[in-house]
Write a structure and sequence with these properties.
The complex is a heterodimer.
Chain A (H helix, E strand, L loop, with lengths): L1 H13 L8 H8 L2 E6 L12 H7 L3 E5 L5 E5 L8 H13 L6 E5 L16 H28 L6 E4 L2 E4 L2 E7 H5 L3 E5 L24 H6 L14 E5 L8 E6 L1 H4 L5 E5 L2 E6 L2 H8 L3 E5 L10 H8 L2 E8 L2 H7 L2 E9 L11 E7 L2 E6 L4 H12 L6 E3 L15 H13 L3 E4 L2 H6 L7 E9 L5 E9 L15 E7 L19 H18 L4 H7 L5 H14 L12 E8 L2 E11 L6 E11 L6 H20 L5 E2 L2 E2 L17 E6 L18 H13 L10 H10 L1
Parallel strand pairs in A: 1-8, 3-4, 9-19, 17-18, 21-22, 25-28
Antiparallel strand pairs in A: 1-2, 2-3, 5-6, 6-7, 9-12, 10-13, 11-12, 14-22, 15-20, 16-17, 16-19, 20-21, 23-24, 24-25, 26-27
Helix pairs in contact in A: 1-12, 4-5, 12-13, 15-19, 18-19
Chain B lengths: L2 E7 L2 E7 L5 H8 L18 E4 L2 E4 L12 E3 L12 H8 L9 H14 L5 H8 L9 H15 L6
Parallel strand pairs in B: 1-5
Antiparallel strand pairs in B: 1-2, 3-4, 3-5
The chains are: A alpha+beta, B alpha+beta.
Chain lengths: 716, 160
């Protein structure tokens, strides 16, 4: 728990705080060529006021134009399927006027890439990528200046194409980027922000590209952290408690140790078995006898929501407008509903894995991980070794979705490597993966709202219990409204498990609740749910456009719900993007099964770098979102995780795949926004609304399992 | 208790001296160095470790190495021939039918068995045949299209 909490705190802190890196060291490692370092910060980062530290603290990534004319981007971002390995080089090549094939990208190697906060929050394009474009623009300007001097022609008389600078009207007079940088070690830091290319000048950005890592991934050559094999490597199993928080009373490893070659390492209650064979260490693990004293939290699946409401005693207002009391009085129709979300798991197909080895003083690690740098700091702290003696190596990560922001497995593998003095691989079993996952927190959302005599929403009182703030504020034109979060007193344990960021954290819970309540009111007002939304979005042209785009693609025609057609809408805002999903479902009223036939996703995400990549992410969001909407829920009792594997934790399968269309607003001259998360927020609401439209039955509790659908049908 | 087990792996004969109870998944990955076959669940529920034994797709995590004695085994590493991608691999790349790529080898191997046993599958048959291979990134629509494309390309020219 302590380690995870530390990582959590550090991840949050580091979003506002850049790390140190020793410039001299990595300039030496880079060799000659033009190097541009740049920093990415959520706050303005004023190096001038702190000139003594300027040299070492002002970079988050750098790019290097080598003597061979190739440009290499060194970034701490990681590839876990979401696509920066493809999109970041596109942004870089376009801004530098180079061929895409001349760009290399090195990701997440902490020795040669500068510090990065981590890969989460849909930040890689909108924050990191934009800053990188500025750096590339600066590099291009520098190169033009150098070419101008060499060719004796003013910059205004030069043009650039594919890394070649030539004289306008005399293109035989030319010099390449490689020719300019050859033999020189030029280094500068980006401080100002040169103008970026306009969309009309894009050659690469805005065109669809296939994934750059496709070949490696279809041939089995792509290396994940468990694919690293080191001479003399041991496979490790850590002795685990039956439930979280359980205290070890006694342990007997003697039977396990009778197996030839089994080693046991111990540091307090941290006990691990090691062997050169995974099978053998698994067998030995089953022979360990341990007694624990388990904690008891009075909560399980059936008491969960009453428990959360009891625990959420402290209100915190995060948004308000007008007078909620007056709004309530002015309402002629009142709506008072409660929405419920269970704990769900990230369940990436790759479990948390790490391979670790000490080479002398230096620890080398490969870990399936969204946060190599913050995790490196934790390891250094836990093992009491200097941070520079810990190196994370470049690796592919097999799905993260927020769950690999936290990497207890990396810390544990490092500890075992230190205790045993051997190279170690630790691959979480699926059972460990569920038990130690940072679950999406279970939540209750209570909404009270009201319509006036004209069918306008005049009152909105929103309270979320443990659901989180992202996406909680309503964005409709409601004159009297209030949004509150309810939490427990500080220091009180509420959740029986670790909780954390699950793809578009909080926003899935909040959008399900808000968009359900909106359609309940639309039906009560006797209005088409699209018209009802648009009527309340008069001052929001971006969301209006997104809804209209989606409606057109979907072929929406106005009808009061329930229309019997099985159409549902949900819209929301996430990571700077406005998004709407239109869903069509069929409900089998004999079995309660929901079949999602079709989903249209419309979004305005500003500039689009790789339309194909965006579509992949939106499709993935729709499929993954159908999981939390229809199937996913972990089973538990007190702090014991009862869900242990994929035979009982089911998510969307290929047979449920709907027909999917993704439409993007044309906003190529606007800054890019998030793409990996937004569409998923709409899936609970869009499907619940579509089920209502099909049957008249309203579901307030996710997931919408056949049993719950049957109950709702009986009550409809 | 070790035993020498002989089988054919990706077209080559293999003799391996190992514990016959060791799981095929770990022998492939840890003893033979073929790490394209992945661990996802250990109970045959996710399909990340799908390989081909005698033209049938099986889950390597629930097989023992002794089970393959004398048999022909094909893993993702043996699918490309002479440096050129198998039509399925090509179709997965061209359709972007993957994201994180961790489930991809198992999915391609399962699709391979599907196509060699049914060279002209209907869309419904593809879906039924692939329903126990999990992809958390949600690339299913593209997987179906990639298998359809590969099926068209393979028809009539697949030597098993």
């Amino acid at each position: 728990m302590n380690t995870d909490e530390k990582i959590n705190r550090r991840v949050l802190r580091d979003m506002y705080n850049l790390r140190e890196i020793d410039r001299r060291d990595f300039v030496k490692r880079l060799g000659g060529g033009l190097v541009i370092a740049f920093s990415v910060s959520h706050l303005s980062f004023v190096t001038e006021k702190d000139s003594s530290r300027e040299e070492s603290r002002d970079m988050n990534a750098y790019l290097r134009i080598g003597e061979d004319g190739r440009v290499t981007l060194y970034t701490g971002k990681i590839e876990m399927g979401q696509g920066p390995i493809t999109s970041l080089p596109m942004m870089l090549a376009d801004e530098l006027d180079m061929k895409l094939g001349s760009v290399n990208i090195i990701m997440g190697d902490t020795d040669i890439c500068p510090w990065d906060e981590g890969t989460y929050g849909s930040l890689s394009t909108r924050v990191f990528g934009q800053t990188m474009r500025h750096a590339a623009a600066k590099a291009r300007a520098m190169l033009l200046k150098m070419a101008s001097e060499q060719l004796g022609v003013p910059v205004s008389g030069l043009q650039v194409s594919d890394g070649v600078i030539s004289v306008k009207n005399n293109s035989r007079k030319q010099v390449t980027y490689a020719g300019l940088t050859k033999g020189k070690a030029i280094y500068f830091t980006l401080k100002d922000e040169p103008p970026l290319k306009k969309a009309s000048d894009f050659k690469i950005m805005g065109t669809s590209r296939l994934r750059a890592d496709g070949y490696e991934k279809v041939t089995g050559k792509a290396k994940f952290s468990g694919d690293i094999h080191l001479p003399g490597m041991r496979y490790a199993r850590i002795v685990r408690p039956p439930s979280l928080g359980a205290k070890l009373i006694s342990i007997d490893t003697s039977e396990a140790e009778k197996i030839n070659g089994i080693e046991v390492v111990r540091d307090g209650d941290f006990i691990a078995l090691l062997h050169t064979s995974q099978d053998t260490v698994d067998k030995a693990y089953d022979l360990v006898r341990a007694e624990y004293e388990e904690e008891n939290l009075p909560v399980d699946n059936s008491s969960l929501f009453d428990y959360l409401k009891r625990k959420g005693t402290e209100a915190n207002e995060i948004d308000a407008g007008g007078s909620p009391d007056e709004g309530e009085k002015a309402s002629v129709k009142h709506f008072d509903f409660e929405y419920r979300d269970p704990y769900i798991a990230h369940a990436p197909v790759e479990p948390h894995t790490a391979t670790a080895v000490f080479e002398g003083e230096k620890l080398k690690l490969w870990a399936s991980c969204q946060t190599p740098y913050p995790t490196r700091e934790t390891i250094a702290e836990e093992l009491d070794i200097p941070e520079k003696n810990v190196r994370f190596m470049e690796i592919f990560t097999g799905g993260g979705f927020g769950g690999k922001i936290y990497n207890p497995q990396a810390v544990e593998a490092a500890r075992i490597a230190k205790l045993s003095g051997k190279p170690v691989q630790l691959m979480y079993t699926r059972k460990e993966e569920f038990m130690f996952d940072r679950l999406r927190p279970a939540a209750v959302v209570k909404i009270r709202s009201g319509l006036d005599a004209e069918g306008r929403i005049v009152f909105w009182d929103y309270g979320t219990y443990f659901g989180g703030q992202r996406g909680a504020k309503q964005f409709y034109g409601i004159p009297n409204h209030r949004t509150q979060t309810f939490r427990s007193p500080r220091g009180e344990t509420v959740h029986p498990f670790f909780t954390g960021a699950w793809r578009a954290p909080s926003n899935n819970t909040n959008t399900f609740a808000r968009e359900s309540q909106i359609e309940i009111m639309a039906a009560a007002a006797g209005e088409d749910p699209l018209d009802f939304r648009l009527k309340h979005l008069k001052n929001d042209s971006k969301m209006t456009e997104v809804l209209q785009l989606g409606a057109k693609k979907f072929g929406w025609t106005p009808a009061k719900g329930p229309s019997g057609r099985g159409y549902g809408i949900a819209c929301g805002k996430d990571a700077g993007t406005d998004v709407a999903v239109f869903a069509e479902v069929e409900v089998d009223e004999k079995t309660g099964r929901i079949n999602v036939k079709r989903a249209v996703c419309a979004q305005n995400m500003g500039m689009v770098v790789n339309p194909q990549g965006v579509i992949l992410q939106a499709e993935g969001c729709i499929i993954m979102g159908m999981g939390y909407a229809l199937k996913e829920e972990v089973e538990f009792k007190s702090r014991k995780m009862l869900t242990e594997n994929f035979d009982t934790y089911d998510f969307t399968r290929i047979g449920q795949t709907p027909e999917i269309d993704v439409v993007l607003a044309d906003a190529q001259d606007d800054p890019p926004q998030g793409g990996g998360e937004p569409a998923i927020i709409c899936m609970g609401g869009a499907i619940a609304n579509a089920v209502f439209d099909a049957t008249g039955a309203r579901l307030f509790r996710l997931p919408m399992t056949p049993e719950r659908v049957m109950n709702a049908l009986r009550n409809a | 208790m070790n035993k020498t087990i002989r089988f054919e792996l990706n077209g080559e004969p293999v003799n391996i001296n190992t514990n016959p109870e060791n799981r095929l998944l770990w022998v492939l990955r840890n003893e033979l160095g073929l790490t394209g076959t992945k661990y996802g669940c250990g109970i045959g529920a996710c399909g990340a470790c799908t390989i081909i034994i005698e033209n049938e797709a099986v889950r390597a995590c629930i097989y023992n190495i002794a089970d393959v004695a004398g048999k022909k085994v094909l893993t993702i590493e043996g699918l490309a021939k002479n440096g050129s991608l198998h039509p399925l691999q090509k179709a997965f790349v061209e359709n972007d039918a993957l994201q994180c790529g961790f489930c991809t080898p198992g999915i391609i191997m399962n699709a391979y068995a599907l196509l060699i046993n049914n060279p002209d599958p209907a869309r419904k048959e593809i879906i039924e045949g692939m329903d126990d291979n999990l992809c958390r990134c949600g690339t299913y629509g593209r997987i179906i299209e990639a298998i359809e494309q590969a099926g068209r390309e393979m028809k009539g020219k697949v030597a098993v």
